[in-house]
C-alpha cells in the first residue's frame, strides 16, 4: 500500500484502469461459451434505440452542449448509419431544417441557430447532411458561401482558424480541407501552405500536435495525416516515425491511448485506429486512381495513375443553391490532383489487388476492448469501464470497430472473413471512408451529387 501511495497520479490511475479491464476479461473467460457469445454480441437494437432517442430530444443536462448541436447530429446519424439503419422521414426532415438554421448568412455552420459559424461544427453539419443523403439534404448546403467562409478562415501561416478570431490548429486544417474535398470546392487557394503548417506540427515522437511546439496527440495525428493525403503532400511527413508513435499507443488493455502515458479511451479506437486504415493504403496501393475531388466537368472520371509508396508505413469537443451559375472555377481554381504522387484511392472503387499487408495493430484485441469494456449492453458505448455512455464515444467506438473488422482485407470490395470479426458475424458494421469518417456508400452518393452539380 505504501508503494502504491508513492506512485504518481497517472501511474495510480493506470493501475486502477488495468484492474477494472482485467477483471472484466477474467469474468468473460470464466463464463460458459453461450454467455461469452452474448457478451461479444453488438447490441444493435439497444444502440439504435439509444441513438434515436438522443436525436429526438435531450435532457436539461445537455445544455452545456448548446454550441455543439451539429456534432450531436453527426455522432448520432453516423452511428445509426454504421449500424445500417435509417431515421424516419419526419426526423430526417427536422434534422435538415435544423442544420439549415445553423448555416450562417455568410457561410459555414454554427453550433446552433444564430451562433457564430465555426469550422468544427461546419464539418459536423456537412458530414451529417452527407450521411442523411438525398437531394434535400445535399442541396441545403450553400457551397458558394461556404467556400467564402473557408477562405475567410484561412490564415497567412497556411493554417486555418476555427472561427473568426479563433485559434489556428491542425484540427481547423482538417475540418476545412475535409469539407472542401467532400463538397468538391477544394482549390489551390485553400491548399496553399497547409502542408507547411502541418509539417511544423509533427513532433520528435513522430505524432502530430495541435499546433507547433505542443505534444503529439491521436486526434491531431489523424487530422494531420488525413489532411496531408487530401492535399497530396503526405510524402513530406516522416511516416516511419509517425507509424512507430501510433503503434505504441495501443496498450495492454487492447484499446488506444491518445497521448504518451495517458489512459486508454474508447474514442481513440477511431482516432488512432483510423490512422492504420490510411497507412495501410499508403503502403499497399499500386496502380490506382487519385482520390476523386472532381475536375469541374461533371464527369467524375479520372485517368489511372501510378503512385509510389512511402518509405514506411473531432477530437473531442470537430439553405442555398448548389448551382453556382457556371463551372467550379468561379469559386476558385480547382486543386489539381491528376499529377500528384502518393494519392490513395480510398474511394475503394478501384482498390483491388492490394498487397497482403498485416495490420500494424492488434485488431482483435481492440475489438475485444470495444465490445467488453466500452459497450453498455442496454445501448451506447463509453470511454472506459466506470464511465457513462455518450453519443461521442458511441460514434468513435463504432467507427473504430468498423476499421478493425476490415484491417486484414486484401480486396476492399470484399466482405471481411469471419475470423476478422470478433463475436458473431452479425457484428459486422458498414464500411467507412476513412478520410472523412462517413459511411462509404453515403460518400459515393455525395461525390456523384457534387461532381454533377
From TrEMBL:
Molecular function (Gene Ontology), one example: protein farnesyltransferase activity
Cofactor remark from the record: Binds 1 zinc ion per subunit.
Cofactor(s) the protein needs: Zn(2+)
GO annotation, biological process: negative regulation of abscisic acid-activated signaling pathway; prenylation
Compositional bias of kind Polar residues: 302-311
Keyword hit for Repeat: yes
Subunit structure: Heterodimer of FTA and FTB.
Stated role: Catalyzes the transfer of a farnesyl moiety from farnesyl diphosphate to a cysteine at the fourth position from the C-terminus of several proteins. The beta subunit is responsible for peptide-binding.
Similarity annotation: Belongs to the protein prenyltransferase subunit beta family.
Protein name listed in UniProt: Protein farnesyltransferase subunit beta
Annotated source species: Gossypium hirsutum
Amino acid at each position: 500500500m505504501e508503494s502504491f501511495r508513492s506512485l504518481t497520479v497517472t501511474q495510480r490511475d493506470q493501475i486502477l484502469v488495468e484492474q477494472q479491464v482485467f477483471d472484466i476479461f477474467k469474468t468473460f473467460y470464466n463464463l460458459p461459451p453461450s454467455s461469452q457469445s452474448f457478451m461479444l454480441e453488438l447490441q444493435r437494437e439497444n444502440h439504435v434505440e439509444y441513438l434515436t432517442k438522443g436525436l429526438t430530444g435531450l435532457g436539461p443536462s445537455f445544455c452545456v452542449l448548446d454550441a455543439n448541436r451539429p456534432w450531436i447530429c453527426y455522432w448520432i446519424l453516423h452511428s445509426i448509419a454504421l449500424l445500417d439503419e435509417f431515421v424516419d422521414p419526419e426526423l430526417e426532415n427536422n434534422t435538415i431544417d435544423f442544420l439549415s438554421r445553423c448555416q450562417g448568412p455568410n457561410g459555414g455552420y454554427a453550433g446552433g441557430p444564430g451562433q457564430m459559424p465555426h469550422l468544427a461544427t461546419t464539418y459536423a453539419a456537412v458530414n451529417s447532411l452527407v450521411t442523411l443523403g438525398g437531394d434535400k439534404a445535399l442541396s441545403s448546403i450553400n457551397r458558394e458561401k461556404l467556400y467564402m467562409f473557408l477562405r475567410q478562415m484561412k490564415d497567412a501561416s497556411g493554417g486555418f482558424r476555427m472561427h473568426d478570431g479563433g485559434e489556428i490548429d491542425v484540427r481547423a486544417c482538417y475540418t476545412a480541407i475535409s469539407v472542401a474535398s467532400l463538397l468538391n470546392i477544394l482549390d489551390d487557394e485553400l491548399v496553399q501552405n497547409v502542408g507547411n503548417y502541418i509539417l511544423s506540427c509533427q513532433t520528435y515522437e513522430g505524432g502530430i500536435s495541435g499546433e507547433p511546439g505542443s505534444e503529439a496527440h491521436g486526434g491531431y495525428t489523424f487530422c494531420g495525416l488525413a489532411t496531408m493525403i487530401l492535399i497530396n503532400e503526405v510524402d513530406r511527413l516522416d511516416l516511419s516515425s509517425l507509424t512507430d508513435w501510433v503503434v505504441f499507443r495501443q496498450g495492454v488493455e487492447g484499446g488506444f491511448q491518445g497521448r504518451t502515458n495517458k489512459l486508454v479511451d474508447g474514442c481513440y479506437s477511431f482516432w488512432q485506429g483510423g490512422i492504420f486504415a490510411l497507412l495501410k493504403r499508403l503502403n499497399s496501393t499500386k496502380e490506382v486512381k487519385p482520390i476523386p475531388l472532381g475536375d469541374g466537368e461533371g464527369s467524375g472520371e479520372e485517368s489511372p495513375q501510378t503512385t509510389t509508396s512511402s518509405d514506411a508505413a473531432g477530437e473531442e469537443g470537430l439553405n442555398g443553391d448548389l448551382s453556382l451559375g457556371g463551372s467550379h472555377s468561379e469559386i476558385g481554381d480547382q486543386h489539381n490532383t491528376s499529377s500528384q504522387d502518393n494519392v490513395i484511392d480510398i474511394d475503394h472503387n478501384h482498390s483491388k489487388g492490394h498487397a497482403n499487408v498485416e495490420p500494424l495493430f492488434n485488431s482483435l484485441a481492440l475489438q475485444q476492448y470495444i465490445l467488453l469494456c466500452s459497450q453498455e449492453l442496454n445501448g451506447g458505448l463509453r470511454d472506459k469501464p466506470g464511465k457513462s455512455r455518450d453519443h461521442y464515444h458511441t460514434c468513435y467506438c463504432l467507427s473504430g470497430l468498423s476499421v478493425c473488422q476490415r484491417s486484414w482485407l486484401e480486396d476492399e470490395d470484399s466482405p471481411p472473413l469471419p475470423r476478422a470479426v470478433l463475436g458473431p458475424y452479425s457484428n459486422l458494421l458498414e464500411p467507412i471512408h476513412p478520410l472523412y469518417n462517413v459511411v462509404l456508400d453515403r460518400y459515393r452518393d455525395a461525390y456523384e451529387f457534387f461532381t454533377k452539380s
